[in-house]
Amino acid sequence: DIFESQLFDFRSVGILYLDNSHKMGRNLEFRYSSVEGDELEIREFAGEELIREQLINMDIDPTDAIDFISDALKSATPDTDEWWK
Length: 85
Description:
- This protein is α+β, with helices and mostly antiparallel strands.
- Helix content is 16%, strand content 33%.
C-alpha cells in the first residue's frame, strides 16, 4: 500500500507546497494523529490562514486523502492552467 511505504512515513508533520512562494503561498500540512497511524489530518493553508482541514481514517477511506489533495491543487491552479490533471 502506497500510504504505508517509507515515502509516506512522516510521523510528525509533512508539508507540501503548492506554489513557488513556499511559506507565504498555498500549502498542505499532513499529520498522523493516532498511535497506529490510521488517522491522517490534512490542513490546507494560504500563507498562515487555514482554509480547510479534514481528519481521514486511512483504513476506511484512503481515497478521501486523494480527493482533498486534488481539490487543493485545483484551487491553487489558475483557470488557464491544468497541470494537476
